Amino acid sequence: MAEQRLIPAGSSIGLRLERGEQLRVIDPFGGQSGDLMAFSADGRERLSNGRTFDYDGKVYLSTGDVLWSDRSQPMLTIVADEVGRHDFLYAACSPEMYRLQYGVTEYHANCHDNLISALRDLGMAPEPLPTPFNLFMHVDVGADGKLVFSAPNSRAGEGITLRAEMDLAIAVSSCPASTCNGGAPPRPLAFEIIPAAL
Ligand SMILES: [Zn+2]
Questions:
Q1: Is 155 helix (H, G, I), strand (E, B) or coil?
Q2: How far is residue 128 CA from its own chain's centroid?
Q3: How far is the centre of ligand 1, averaged over its atoms, from the C-alpha of 192 (Å)?
Q4: What is the pLDDT of residues 127-152, one digit of tens each?
Q5: Residue 34 Cα, ligand 1 centroid: separation in angstroms?
Q6: What is the predicted pLDDT for the residue at 143?
Q7: How far apart (Å, rounded) are the C-alpha atoms in residues 194 and 79?
Q8: pTM, to two decimals
Q9: Dist. CA 149 → ligand 1 center (Å)
Q10: Is the C-alpha dihedral spanning 121, 13, 15, 180 positive or negative?
């Protein structure tokens, strides 16, 4: 069994994955969304929602789908997914977003700063930060094109497993916004790294 580690509520972790290794991100309590960012280990390629839309042709990504880099290389393949609802639509929440949308004037913990600091700790130059992969986030695209988000579908212990298609530096933030977590206070996520199949 791979060792499971916590991503503290409203905080982030950084990790490196070698090609073939798998990252499993788990929602231990259920109903908690997160943001995932991936850079190639040499920092030359970054996760790209636009390229992923190009090659996957869909808004929601699940088992069998590939997350692509801005240089059109496969970065991660989703190999297992109990939740089935993740998207690539929203930028990471940021201090500016909390101010503009919710009138929060003091500093609010946010996925943008969480991902930036985790990637810096890995030696990356993360700014400007690309759009992260929104784990467990439950967004519906209406027939009129409007975006509506509701509480994540993830139940306690469910998760998503992604296989590295190149050597990667990865950051995962447990989102501190209660709005996309069904109004609940921020909770932790967890992760484990599964060795490459021999
Ligand atoms: Zn967030």
A1: strand
A2: 16
A3: 21
A4: 999 999 999 999 999 999 999 988 99
A5: 7
A6: 95
A7: 12
A8: 0.96
A9: 13
A10: negative
